[in-house]
Amino acid sequence: PDGSVGTAKLVDANVTDAKIATMAASKLTGALPAIDGAALTNLPAGGKIVQVVHAHLGTHFTSSTQMVDDNTIPTITEGVEVITLAITPTSATNKLLIRASVPVATGNRTLMHIMALYVGATSAALSSRPFALANADDPDGPVIEHYMTSGVTTELTFRVRIGPVGSATITINGHDSAAKMGGTMNTFMTIMEIAV
User: How many CA atoms lie within 13 A of 95 on its CB side?
Assistant: First the structure.
């Protein structure tokens, strides 16, 4: 008599999306079914991490190959190569965030040291940073970070080089010219590809 239709009078498949104008939020209770997210819309376009690659190196070694402290970009022949890591970007417009740290010590704490990041065989560094050590033979872990557009969808190999500015021997992944901490004092590099 009131014009209502009970559940018993509904025929399967006769209540379609087109016949449902609105639904109160209070009717949406319980858990949603699992979905893959492929059809979601109105999500922010950028900032999603597409892939992450990582490498670490615990091998101890020493070097006396110097870096140059002047107003030119450090070149790939300066210092010693410590670690490399390759990534193949999925889009030429995506961003890459490269971060690396190298535990290093030297007997000559009065000297400046330089760490630089390179890509491929390109001579000029992408980024560089000077650092000093607080005490002789006390290790520090300087960090270098670089953010860039990938520019390609082919493999890119990033390289970190480090060296003293002057005559000194540096110890990588150790101190007092010796390995320490059983290989857990290690150099690392992480690269993230970020969608834009």
Answer: 12
Residue 101: is it exposed, middle or buried by C-beta count within 10 angstroms (0-12/13-18/19+)? Answer: buried
Q: Is 101 helix (H, G, I), strand (E, B) or coil?
A: strand
DSSP secondary structure, 132-193, as one string? --SSTT--B--EEEEEEE---SS-EEEEEEEEESSS--EEESEETTEE-GGGTS-EEEEEEE
CA-wise closest residue to 120 among 78, 149, 85, 91: 85
Q: How many Å apart are CA 109 and CA 164, to the nearest integer? A: 10
Q: Which of these ranges, 22-26, 55-59, 128-132, 151-155, has the smallest mean pLDDT?
A: 22-26
pLDDT tens digits for range 94-112:
999 999 999 888 877 778 8
Rounded to two decimals, what is the model's pTM? Answer: 0.73
pLDDT at 38 over 70: no
Residue 43's pLDDT is: 64
- 22 class by beta-carbon count within 10 Å (0-12 exposed, 13-18 middle, 19+ buried): exposed
Amino acid identity for residue 151 in this structure: G
Q: What's the distance, CA 85 to chain centroid?
A: 11
Residue with tokens 């670690």: 83
